[in-house]
C-alpha cells in the first residue's frame, strides 16, 4: 500500500475512534446529569469528525496536509479549557486519546511537542484541583502513553522508509518503478503548490524500440535502456527522479525547474544520447516530451498526459527531438 493511502486510512480511523470515544464520554456524562460536559464532549466529537472529513477531502495530500495541526490544537485546547472550568477531574481523562491522536496524525516532532505540552499543562491543572499525589499518578500514566506511542511511531517510520526504498527503486538500475510515478508526482505537485516553486516533467521514449527488439531481442532492448538510464543519472540533478515505465519509456520529475530549465535538460539528454555510441546497437536516439506545471494543474495525470503527448508527437515526426507541450493544450 502506498504511503499516502496508508496515512489516509490511519488518520481517518484515528479521528473516527476519537470521535466515538468522546461521544461515549458525553453520553455517560448525560446519564449522570452533567449536561455541560455532555455538550462539550459532543462539540469535541464533532470537531474530531471534521478532522475525519478533512482527511477524506485531502486524501491525495496527506503527506503535507497542514489542517491537521489546527484541528488537533483546537481539540487539545478544548480539553484544557474544559478541565480548567470543570469542578470535576473527569475531564482530565479526556486527554488520554488526544495524546495518542497527536502522535498518530502529526509528524513525530510536532506530535510529540503538542502531546508534551498537553501533558505539562494537564498535570499543573490536576495539581491545583486534586493535589500532588493524583497529579503525579496521572502524569505517570500519560507519560508512559506518550513514550510508548512515540517509540511505536518512530519504529514504524524507520521500517516504512526501509520498505519504501526497497519497493520504489529498482536495485539493478537505480531508477524508480513506474507504479509509484503518480503518487510521487502528486506529492511534488502539492509541494509546489505550497512553496510556489516551479515543477516540470519529461517523458522519454527510445526511438525505434520495436525494431531493436525484433532485430536484436528483448534482452538487448533492456540492456540499451539500462545504459541510457546510467547516462541520464550523469545528466540530471540530485533532486530529480527517474522512473521506468516500460522497456522503452522513461519519465523524469524535475522539481524547482521552470519551462526554460526543462527545455535545456531535455535537449541536453537528446544530444548526449544521439551522439554517444551504444552497444550492441551502435547508435540510438530518444523522443522527449516535456511540460511545466501551471497554477491550475493540481492533478498528476494532467502533467503525465501532456508529457506523453509531446513524446508521441516527436515519434510521429521521426524522433530524436524535443517537444514542449504547454498547459493550454487539450488532453
From TrEMBL:
SUPFAM superfamilies: Nucleotide cyclase (SSF55073). One of its GO terms (molecular function) is diguanylate cyclase activity. It catalyses: 2 GTP = 3',3'-c-di-GMP + 2 diphosphate. The keyword Transcription regulation does not apply. InterPro entries: Diguanylate_Cyclase (IPR050469), GGDEF_dom (IPR000160), Nucleotide_cyclase (IPR029787), Rev_trsase/Diguanyl_cyclase (IPR043128). Keywords: Membrane, Transmembrane, Transmembrane helix. This is diguanylate cyclase. Its EC number is 2.7.7.65. The keyword Transmembrane applies. It is an enzyme of class 2 (transferase). GO terms for cellular component: plasma membrane. It comes from Marinobacter psychrophilus. The chain crosses the membrane at residues 12-28, 34-57, 69-91, 111-128, 135-153. GO terms for biological process: cell adhesion involved in single-species biofilm formation; negative regulation of bacterial-type flagellum-dependent cell motility. Residues 197-327 form the GGDEF domain.
